[in-house]
């Protein structure tokens, strides 16, 4: 992808520095709640089929406050999983929109697997151009900017550029432990992906591909579908690490379209076999249907 030269008239590096700092702060908040949860059960609410904890809400408030304070006079829109969407007119009218998942993998946070993440993406005209994914339990933060690559950052400031594997055989699928309906399970069973590992958050799954621990991730909507905030930041990380992320028909994901759900079959991969996987998945889904 072509390098990003400016963000709403501001230097890319200055916007990135703020996003990374906010990501680290949000990770610290998540860990505070995570440590407290070891002593007492988390305070829970229910939003549809999904649990919401006090950590989700505290991180949401902190990230929004920090970004809105830092960019008071900038033409940014803000969409968070915990936003009051009854107060929003979707799609947001701004070209530049921050898409935030305060706690991706809330169920894993509750179950104490450590496989949860804070995800912050900046999109421009429906495509991600800057991304931060913090994994609090690992004390790591991943970031990417369009045209600049994907990096792992540790607490001491050490940064390592990441590149996906070049495997074309014996690909490793990273999948959810839950959220697998019958149709999706049939798809997984019939795909030529024999090696499978199971983790929580979408961000943690995509990081596994960027770290060469896995090669493929699939999502298939059923009665519900993943949302913009599940995919926006992880997608850019993968693309900048040299991978690919698309619908099964090869089309790109779009964000802030008015429908926050990402319907259909989504495929993320290390790249070399992406077109074959897309065709295989599309053919299998046609036969299942």
Outline the secondary-structure elements.
Elements: E1 6-7, E2 10-11, H1 12-37, E3 44-47, E4 50-53, H2 54-70, E5 76-80, E6 96-104, H3 106-111, E7 117-124, E8 127-135, E9 140-145, E10 149-154, E11 159-162, E12 172-176, H4 182-190, E13 195-199, H5 202-210, E14 216-220, H6 228-240, E15 244-247, E16 265-269, H7 274-288
Parallel strand pairs: 5-6, 12-13
Antiparallel strand pairs: 1-2, 3-4, 6-7, 7-8, 8-9, 9-10, 10-11, 14-16, 15-16
Task: Give a short summary of the structure.
Its EC number is 3.1.3.25. This protein has 289 residues and is α+β, with helices and mostly antiparallel strands.
List the keywords.
289 residues; alpha+beta; seven-stranded mixed sheet; three-stranded antiparallel sheet; 7 helices; 16 strands; CysQ/Inositol_MonoPase; metal-binding; metal ion binding; inositol monophosphate phosphatase activity
Overview of the structural elements:
A seven-stranded mixed beta sheet has the order 5-6-7-8-9-10-11. It has a three-stranded antiparallel beta sheet with strand order 14-16-15, with helices on both faces. A two-stranded antiparallel sheet has the order 1-2. It has 289 residues and is an alpha+beta fold. The protein starts with 5 loop residues before the first strand and ends with a helix. A hairpin with a 3-residue loop joins strand 9 and strand 10 (149-154). The chain contains seven helices and 16 strands. InterPro entries: CysQ/Inositol_MonoPase (IPR050725), Inositol_monophosphatase-like (IPR000760), Inositol_monophosphatase_CS (IPR020550). GO terms for molecular function: 3'(2'),5'-bisphosphate nucleotidase activity; inositol monophosphate phosphatase activity; metal ion binding.
